[in-house]
């Protein structure tokens, strides 16, 4: 089968090969035919080494498709079912799951260390235990979440990661209050989803901050009341909040520098929500006096900060009701052979989300 493979961490280009085989099928597993997958910035971060991932590997974790076969012991799934790929399935038995914090379950991360593909030259890993830049993949049954027939594969793929992460940051983690002021730093696919989540929650002002003009323009279409470049952010803070700072600031870049900017633009007693996935050696610093004196809440948001299955259902309900726009987030479509062009478009900010159709 065909798949896009990164041979070594640090390479910028993927090689599309036709000698890849999905392996590991057996009890508790399902074999999926991927029909659509989105490009998430986490894929690029894994390719560059910002996020830890053994190589060689197949990127992609934001996918949807059809069940081809189910292993022994799998219930609730049958061949032909339409599903989205959940890259962080909950085991249901660990302390985090028992506390209701299923987004903190580590079972999915354990899968990342087991290769689920093979080539004549040896084993190949799937990013985050999945790997959706491929025609077929074998995953644990918990990674395959059934979707209703009216949800297109490309929409389901977005819900599998970026949309759930962004919406959840605003709704689950920060719990944005109606009438509040919000700033979102970083307006790619996850940032746009965060903006839509803040709009759903009833925020009065939503300021989008991004260096790329096309992304700022897009943010206005998705619910931002104003869009500014990073150089204009201080002026926006002065005009909108009289210099006090925003009630909520979302950092959706994954860098300590932008997290510090977010902190400084959050009002005293306000909330900084960290959504971007960054590097282990990139340290965010606050001094002990400001931490105590300003009483700003610093809330990381992992995969939307809530039960992902419930979050999927909520995203579908909001999409059906016309409360969020997911179709327009897909700005580019390619086949697998165009994957490297799509990666370049994401790196430059030209695209919000690219759908790879397989």
Could you characterize what this model shows?
It contains 12 helices and 19 strands. By secondary structure, the protein is α/β, with parallel strands linked by helices. The strands form 4 sheets. Strands 4, 6, 7, 10, 11, 18 and 19 form a 7-stranded mixed sheet that branches. A 6-stranded parallel sheet has the order 14-13-12-15-16-17, sandwiched between helices. A 4-stranded mixed sheet has the order 3-8-9-5, with no helix packed on it. Helix 5 (162-173) runs parallel beside helix 6 (189-201). The longest helix has 13 residues, at 189-201. The N and C termini lie close together (11 Å).
CA-based gyration radius: 20 Å
| Number of strand elements | 19
How would a crystallographer describe the biggest sheet?
A: 7 strands, mixed
Q: What amount of the residues lies in strands?
A: 25-35%
Q: Calculate the mean pLDDT score and round it.
A: 96
Instruction: Indicate the percent of residues in helices.
Output: 25-40%
The parts where pLDDT drops under 50 for at least 5 residues are: none
Quaternary state of the chains: single chain
- Can you count the helices? 12
Distance between the termini: 11 Å
Described by the principal axes of the CA atoms, the overall outline is globular
Helix/strand/pairing class, anyone? alpha/beta
